Amino acid sequence: MPKIENSGIEIGLYTLGDIGADPVTGKTISAGQRMKEIIEVAKLADEAGLDVFGVGEHHRLDYATSSPSVVLAAIAQITKRIKLTSATTVLSTIDPVRLFEDFATLDLLSDGRAEIIAGRGAFIESFPLFGYDTNDYDALFSENIDLFLKLNKNERITWDGHFRSPLRNAEIAPRPFQKELPIWVGVGGTPNSAIRAGRLGVGMTLALLGGDPMRFKPLVDLYRKAGIEAGHVLEDLKLGITGHGYFSKTTQQAKDEYYPYYSNYWSYVNRQRGMGGGRMSRADFDQMTAPDTALFVGSPQQIVEKILRQYELFGHQRFMAQIDIGGIPFKKVAEGIELLATEVAPIVRKETRK
């Protein structure tokens, strides 16, 4: 694997597989079509030379991807070099043994390209679905990540926990192609989550969905401080920055094209969360996409400037954009991939290669 300092930061894409009506045409594609388009997007990203592709996990009818490992396994067969990660696995409500075996299998199928971003989940529908109590939200995550990290290091394991049956000299198979599966913890904005990721010595993926990026700097500092205090070296404390993005030839064109889809996305996400479903005003949207905010919307030059400004702030090793939300048609997503790969990535990699 190339060293970060020689190749610049990694640049990639992720999808949560939301299924929303196109606000321009009023049409909604099927889950099957959405999944086929996700696989095609990953293929385009691989061919364009992007570094990583992530697939999210939701257990609702308005999302297409409840099983990231299955979707990523399909992607593995038509791609050659791009890394394949969950984005994110709801680790609180999945058996860590099953998760490890699924991603070890993906790793073998992809010749060592599998990764996991684990989180507690922004949605809680998986708790009743799989028989878990939301009161155990944090305790489940703590126990499951502890077990997963042990599974990652050991072919046989003896283990006792609170939420699942004990393991007695259990064989954990298959073993991955890589020595260990890379694991990151997805963090939204909770200091305790950042501290935990640091103490565990795993990567941290930070979701920047708006506002001033500077407000996330304390989380990054907490993560690195906790990691070093726990005895981990700074080089192993990898940081990823993720966020919503839309790219066009000019910043004004990007804003004009993206606004209906972005407003649509937040309208139905807020409804899903029981917060009402009003549309975002254009004035609010223009404020959210200003040059000094975290939202990656604009011309290639604007996006380069935003990524590099954040790189100065965080010194991260990975940037991933979500560019397919709110019913955006496949053609627009494909155009975004081309701009990201040909006009944004080369400059960002060159500037961060030092």
UniProtKB/TrEMBL annotation:
Transmembrane segments: none annotated. InterPro entries: Bact_Lucif_Oxidored, Luciferase-like_dom, Luciferase-like_sf. GO terms for molecular function: monooxygenase activity; oxidoreductase activity, acting on paired donors, with incorporation or reduction of molecular oxygen. Keywords: Monooxygenase, Oxidoreductase. It comes from the Bacteria. Coiled coil: none annotated. Residues 10-313 form the Luciferase-like domain. This is LLM class flavin-dependent oxidoreductase.
